[in-house]
């Protein structure tokens, strides 16, 4: 067993033995290391205090600067919001004003339909004139011109209405852009005001690492300002255009009303003159008719007198011819051409000549009577034509035109 014990003794070696200098050196080394580590720790603590103080100041300064810039931004947003808001009020007022003018044009178009219909109806009625009275007179010319003026006025008003509605659309577009800009700025004001109000002890604070950075879709302050300025300039442009459009519409409405009123007056004057002219012609025709009727009566009396005169010659002629016949029976030498015979022959010739003369006058009187009767029919027909014309111009057209009202909308 002895060799076995010796082998085990070799496996378990005794701890090393150090010298005293080694021990002293080791202790000093530990002292130095500890001193170095402690010095480093002191320096680190001092550096940490310095960095803590610097970062605290830096953070406070940064937060103060952010607060200042946020307040400045709030002032900028508020300034531009007020500018846009002021322009919005102007555009909104102009929209209401232009809308009122559009309503006036609509009413004018609706109102002027009736005068046009009346003018056209008068032209239709005047086609009912008869004979020579179916003339292209001043009334006809003025009525045709009135239809033309009214149709031209309505065409102008329709074109103006389209332009005004287009301007109203542009006004509303500008208003929409301003309202959108104001809504965005109010939202930005609320958000930035909330940011300004946030403090270290505010509720709801939390880390948002993903929010750190600049959005690639964001715009520069210059671009932001340019957008609002562009909206303001566009709104002002449309406001001025709208004001100009209102002025144009007002002028057109007044001009159209003046033109229609002027033409209405021309037609009414022409109708009045034509009615007076027709009435005067009818009165003269009636006067001539009365004279012709009187002449017809006189001629009928004259014919009766001539017929009576001719009839009265019948008996004297019979007596004279009978006497001649009886005396023609005288015998032989008694068949004498005595004064009595000559006077009987002369008497018969005279009576026959008288009857011939009376018969010629009778024929002429009968022809004259026929002529007078024809003139009577012509005059009566012409008077009826004039009465028909007067009814059309004075009653039908005059009644219709009495209801025409030209308003300045």
UniProtKB/TrEMBL annotation:
Transmembrane segments: none annotated. The keyword Cytoplasm applies. It is found in: Cytoplasm, Cytoskeleton, Cilium axoneme; Cytoplasm, Cytoskeleton, Flagellum axoneme. Pfam families: Tektin. One of its GO terms (biological process) is cilium movement involved in cell motility. Keywords: Cell projection, Cilium, Coiled coil, Cytoplasm, Cytoskeleton, Flagellum. Residues 1-24 are annotated as: Disordered. The keyword Hydrolase does not apply. Residues 275-309 form a coiled coil. GO terms for cellular component: axoneme; microtubule cytoskeleton; nucleus. It comes from the Eukaryota. Belongs to the tektin family. Microtubule inner protein (MIP) part of the dynein-decorated doublet microtubules (DMTs) in cilia and flagellar axoneme. Forms filamentous polymers in the walls of ciliary and flagellar microtubules. This is Tektin.
